[in-house]
Amino acid sequence: MLNKKIFLLVFGLVLFQLNPAQAQETKDNKKFGLGISGSYHYVPEFFLHIGLKGAHDVKAQQTGLRLLYRTTNVDVAVQFQYMQINAPDGNWLGINHDWDETDYVEFDNLAFAFVEISATWNTPIIENLYFIYGAGIGGGLVLGDVYTTPTMGCTSDNWDDTDQCTHLPGDVRREKEEIPRGMGMIEAIVGLRYDIIENISLKVETGFFLPGFFKTTISAEFYY
Questions:
Q1: Does the pLDDT at position 84 exceed 70?
Q2: Which three-class secondary structure state does DSSP give residue 28?
Q3: Which residues pair with 103 in a beta bridge?
Q4: N or C: which terminal CB in the chain sees fewer CB atoms within 10 Å?
Q5: CB-CB contact of 15 with 207 (8 Å)
Q6: Rounded to two decimals, what is the model's pTM?
Q7: What is the number of alpha carbons within 13 Å of residue 197 lying toward its C-beta?
Q8: Considering only CA atoms, which of 108, 131, 118 is closest in space to residue 186?
Q9: Which CATH architecture has domain 31-223?
């Protein structure tokens, strides 16, 4: 009985290999490609209140390169990304601290360079147009520096006014903070894919990028 099952399995595989049309179809549905992407990230102040008592909106721009592998329903990508984080200099305060402990914080070229592996599923809507959804995970290096200077005169009413909740320029207490240089990331996206021609796709995606960003991405992908 076992030998019969093995025979049928081998026989089926042989028939598959001898079927040129089916083999060609399978080959045509698998493609390699390259892509470029640009993203805009946004973190509203209220979202940061999870860990910060005094915070500001944070924005970021991201550019990247994608190495792609496309099957009938799924696009798999290895992405190399660089995110420039635009956190505003100003008064910031951690949670569980009093307002008179507010620091004036300066962000010096804060950025995140990382590698991500992602998978995106494609569901046809009409000809050449797809609904897409997917997720990615990765990690990389945090670049740049953060400096803090103690402030004075700060209350819950004026903490974000640097004229009232103020610091002394050139204060000897200004110090460079130790920040983690390694960081992981995870994201989930939904969006649309449009095939301009068979081997060129445009994608518009939106979703969540953790730690903490809302994200919108436009990308162009080229397959061969």
A1: yes
A2: helix
A3: 92, 150
A4: N
A5: no
A6: 0.84
A7: 4
A8: 118
A9: Beta Barrel (2.40)
The closest alpha carbon to 219, from 115, 124, 79, belongs to 79
Angle at 30 between CA 67 and CA 202, to 5 degrees: 55
Query: Encoding tokens for residue 215?
Result: 């994200």
Contact 36, 66 (CB under 8 A): yes
What distances in angstroms separate CA 14 from CA 7, 10, 25, one per listed residue? 10, 6, 17
Counted residue by residue, the chain has a size of 224
Q: Where are the domains of the chain?
A: 31-223
pLDDT tens digits along 89-141: 999 999 999 999 999 999 999 999 999 999 999 999 999 999 999 999 999 99
Helix (H, G, I), strand (E, B) or coil at 74: strand
pLDDT tops 80 at residue 25:
no
Dig out the tokens for 172 from the structure: 């000897």
